[in-house]
Design a protein that fits this description.
disordered N terminus, elongated, mainly beta, 3-stranded antiparallel sheet, 29% strand
C-alpha cells in the first residue's frame, strides 16, 4: 500500500479534505519537510504517551480559542523566561526568580489565608 504522506494531491477522508506533502515547501517563510492541511476537523487520539521534540523553534497559531484539559498536573518549564500577556495585562517570570505582574487593575482574592513573606514589603 502506498504511503499517503508521499502524495501531493487532495484526499477525501470522512468527508474532510486533507492534503499532505513531504519534501520542499514553505510554512510561514520556513522550509517545510512535512506538512498536513486539514480543511475542517482533525482529531488525534493517543492511547498512552505522546512526545514531540523540536530542535529550535515551535509556534502554534489559533484563530479564536485554545483549551488544554489536564487530568492531574500541568507542568510548564522555560530555560530563561516565561511571558503571558493579554491586552494591557502581563505576567513575566525570569530564571533569576523575578515575577512581574502588570495590569490596569489587579485583584487578589483569598478564601482562607493570604501570606506575604519578604525581607522588605513596599506598598505604594
Amino acid at each position: 500500500m502506498a504511503n499517503p504522506l508521499e502524495k501531493r494531491d487532495s484526499q477525501s477522508i470522512s468527508d474532510a479534505a486533507v492534503r499532505s506533502s513531504v519534501g520542499p515547501g514553505d510554512v510561514d517563510g520556513y522550509p517545510a519537510n512535512f506538512r498536513v492541511d486539514v480543511e475542517n476537523h482533525l482529531v488525534e487520539t493517543i492511547g498512552s504517551n505522546f512526545t514531540q521534540g523540536v530542535g529550535q523553534h515551535a509556534m502554534m497559531r489559533v484563530a479564536r480559542k485554545y483549551t488544554i484539559f489536564v487530568g492531574d498536573v500541568l507542568n510548564t518549564n522555560a530555560g530563561s523566561e516565561i511571558n503571558i500577556s493579554c491586552g494591557a495585562s502581563s505576567i513575566r517570570m525570569t530564571r533569576a526568580g523575578m515575577i512581574l505582574i502588570n495590569g490596569v487593575e489587579i485583584d487578589i482574592v483569598s478564601d482562607k489565608r493570604f501570606s506575604v513573606l519578604s525581607d522588605v514589603v513596599k506598598i505604594n
